[in-house]
Amino acid sequence: MKHIDLDIPISELQEYMHQNDWLLSKNEEILGIEKPGEGNMNVVLRAITNQRSLILKQSRPFVQKYQQIKAPLDRIAVEHEFYEAIQNSALSAHIPKILGYDMEDHLLLLEDLGNCEDMTSLYQKRTIDKKELQKLIFILGLIHRTKVPQDFPDNIEMRKLNHQHIFVLPFMEDNGFSLDEIQPGLQELSLSYKKDNALKKIVKKIGDRYLSKGTTLLHGDYYPGSWMTETNNLYVIDPEFGFVGFAEFDLGVMVAHLIMASGKKKYLKRILAQYNGEVDEKLVAQIAGIEIIRRLIGLAQLPMERTIKERKSLLKKAYKMIMA
Predict the structure, then answer these.
(1) C-beta separation of 1 from 28 below 8 A
(2) Which terminus has fewer CB within 10 Å in the chain: N or C?
């Protein structure tokens, strides 16, 4: 079997999973296939059997949501290695269990976490529950304190892809993005940031550090789309951008999204006060600022409705955080 999608015949998927010994017994039958939610990077399916439900996740040589963007196939191997590295720790309660992995077909079989919802609703709620915030900071601290396997992949091709979309393209005057199609007036609003050489110099320096090797295991994309809630449980998924880097990157991304959701800069101090580890607060703030700018005037837009006035205010906050 090469590719999975919603149109795959159940009999073909049944045979494939049987060959890989992924079914509990000969009596376990696949009854249906469905899409569990919107996947950005990969193809994700839910297989419902007569005994349980399972999640199948497969990488392609492109980004699933933006298929014109090429992406490395081995990102699924990185996700597998990340889950393996933290499987037997306190983090196991907050990640899906690996049930199977097919390296040749770039396919991962995971426990189905059930009727989970990602936390992108934060952008509409404009606030986060204190207990959820504490738990997310606690989980991130556990990830960062995980002993990194010596052979953990450097994930450099995924980092190069991410680097372009975080540190390069949003700051280019002619990058091919039609920002006024996203929101009228956004193109004009973006120009002062794209023309600011002092800003771009700092962004480049931090971008270079992002591409260099560090000492801390990172999730690599620690934002509400990777946070899942189900009743009182909280899970973290989609670590395909994971790598060994510097803690400030994950923290900065987390801070950025809570500032964008709420409009309040206080989350910088609040998160760092609860985080168990020594970090450079200025660097966290700078990464948060870069992430805010790239989400507001870059390609990777969020499910977040904000007026031009609100976007202008967020961009100003972000600029001050980078330049301080």
Answers:
(1) no
(2) C
**Could you tell me the residue range of the domain that residue 70 belongs to?**
10-111
The three-state DSSP-derived secondary structure of 182-233 is HCCCHHHHHHHHHCCHHHHHHHHHHHHHHHCCCCEEECCCCCHHHEEEECCE
In the chain, the amino acid numbered 41 is M
Q: How far apart are CA 312 and CA 310, in angstroms?
A: 5
Instruction: List the structure tokens of 128.
Output: 């986060």
Distance CA 228, CA 150 (A): 29
C-alpha gyration radius of the chain: 20
For residue 93, which phi and psi values (nearest 5 degrees)? Answer: -75, -10
Write down the residue that tokens 């696949």 correspond to. Answer: 30
Per this entry, what is the length of the chain? 324
Confirm if 173 and 191 have CB atoms less than 8 A apart. Answer: yes
Q: Which residues contact 151 (CB under 8 A, 6 or more apart)?
A: none
Q: What is the CATH number of the domain that holds 315?
A: 3.90.1200.10
The pTM of the whole model exceeds 0.85: yes
- Residue at 169 is within a domain: yes
Determine, yes or no, domain membership for 3.
Answer: no
Structure tokens at 100: 């199977």
- In degrees and rounded to multiples of 5, residue 11 shows phi and psi of -65, -35
pLDDT digits (tens, 9 = 90+) for 61-79: 888 887 888 888 899 999 9
